[in-house]
UniProtKB/TrEMBL annotation:
<dbReference type="InterPro" id="IPR001926">
    <property type="entry name" value="TrpB-like_PALP"/>
</dbReference>
<feature type="domain" description="Tryptophan synthase beta chain-like PALP">
    <location>
        <begin position="21"/>
        <end position="304"/>
    </location>
</feature>
<dbReference type="GO" id="GO:0030170">
    <property type="term" value="F:pyridoxal phosphate binding"/>
</dbReference>
<dbReference type="GO" id="GO:0009097">
    <property type="term" value="P:isoleucine biosynthetic process"/>
</dbReference>
<dbReference type="GO" id="GO:0004794">
    <property type="term" value="F:threonine deaminase activity"/>
</dbReference>
<dbReference type="GO" id="GO:0006565">
    <property type="term" value="P:L-serine catabolic process"/>
</dbReference>
<keyword id="KW-0456">Lyase</keyword>
<dbReference type="InterPro" id="IPR036052">
    <property type="entry name" value="TrpB-like_PALP_sf"/>
</dbReference>
<protein>
    <submittedName>
        <fullName>Pyridoxal-phosphate dependent enzyme</fullName>
    </submittedName>
</protein>
<dbReference type="InterPro" id="IPR000634">
    <property type="entry name" value="Ser/Thr_deHydtase_PyrdxlP-BS"/>
</dbReference>
<keyword id="KW-0663">Pyridoxal phosphate</keyword>
<dbReference type="Pfam" id="PF00291">
    <property type="entry name" value="PALP"/>
</dbReference>
<dbReference type="InterPro" id="IPR050147">
    <property type="entry name" value="Ser/Thr_Dehydratase"/>
</dbReference>
<dbReference type="GO" id="GO:0006567">
    <property type="term" value="P:L-threonine catabolic process"/>
</dbReference>
<dbReference type="GO" id="GO:0003941">
    <property type="term" value="F:L-serine ammonia-lyase activity"/>
</dbReference>
Length: 320
């Protein structure tokens, strides 16, 4: 099998330099390890403060800026976050954007795509059905498809998360990231490959990278659960699989209950409200799947916050 084209250090540096004036350098916030049930130091990388409410803005803008000047439009399939990011990026450079979104995505994510000026096409099913519909729609049109996670430009843009972590927490012993199709994992792992190991964390109910590593090849997995709208890739990306194989990654899996518990804890301890998929990495920590010893530092990426309201399962009613 031919190794896919992965961004090297020069490409990552060049992409970050190009994007730096247009994206946010998101903060790293320390939370006492004891509040999360671990002995060491925990730093939260708050990518939910990025433009469009998720890390996706980095890769989408990098992909759009890499398009030929003759391109007039872009198409993408997305559970919502990537679509909003592509719509935002296209708005910056004056391109039309058509975004295909599964009906399982929250209505607020669809509205956000439209607020950025794109046309949203809602498709029955999950991400795979939206992706297929986008391919069929684009077949006879002069547009460029922007894949949600399996493009070199997407990984090179997402690698900015790792570049910033290397500067903000060079002493980190490991970095935990949510993993769906693998764009965030792949980019961050490549940026930090000589600095700290990056651990991908997947929901048990859409664990495509873990299944691929067990099988020795990319395979389709069932997709469902509370994090499916943002991490519901039925098959892991070719590039994420190559990075995980090359670096010997061992994904951690978390249940829906563990994800929701981590989301609730993040709100209660930090008043940070993330979407379920964005806290899968934190869930691995709070569920006791990561041993953080006294004196060690772990960075946890909180990847997005596109949700309609403060849900009842996170914040209990306050009595007066």
């Amino acid at each position: 099998m031919t190794r896919p084209w992965l961004p090297g250090p020069d490409r990552i540096e060049e992409s970050y330099a190009r994007l730096r004036p247009m994206v946010r350098r998101t903060p790293v916030v320390e939370i006492a390890g004891g509040d999360l049930g671990v002995a060491g130091r925990v730093l939260l990388k708050l990518e939910l403060l990025q433009h469009t409410g998720s890390f996706k803005a980095r890769g989408a803008l990098n992909a759009v800026l890499s398009m030929p000047s003759t391109v007039t439009g872009a198409v993408a399939a997305s559970g919502g976050n990537h679509g909003a990011a592509v719509a935002w990026a296209c708005g910056i450079v004056g391109l039309e954007a058509d975004i295909f979104v599964p009906a399982t995505s929250p209505v607020e994510k669809v509205r956000r795509i439209e607020r950025y000026g794109a046309t949203a096409h809602v498709v029955d099913g999950y991400y795979p059905e939206a992706y297929q519909a986008s391919r069929e729609w684009a077949r006879d049109r002069a547009v460029v498809a922007v894949h949600a996670y399996d493009e070199e430009a997407i990984l090179a843009g997402a690698a900015g998360v790792g570049v910033e972590i290397a500067e903000q927490a060079p002493y980190a012993r490991r970095v935990l990231v949510p993993c769906g199709g693998g764009g965030l994992y792949g980019g961050t792992a490549l940026a930090l490959r000589d600095i700290a190991p990056v651990v991908p964390v997947e929901p048990e109910r859409c664990a495509s990278l873990a299944a691929a590593l067990v099988a020795g090849e990319r395979v389709d997995v069932p997709v469902s659960g509370v994090a499916a709208d943002s991490l519901g890739a039925a098959r892991t990306g070719e590039r994420a699989f190559a990075v995980a194989t090359e670096l010997g990654a061992e994904p951690l899996l978390v249940s829906d209950d563990q994800i929701l518990a981590a989301r609730r804890l993040l709100w209660e301890e930090c008043r940070v409200l993330a979407e379920p998929g964005a806290v899968t990495a934190l869930a691995a920590l709070t569920a006791g799947k990561v041993d953080v010893r006294d004196g060690e530092t772990v960075v946890v990426v909180i990847s997005g916050a596109n949700h309609p309201t403060i849900p009842a399962d996170v914040v209990a009613p306050v009595s007066t």
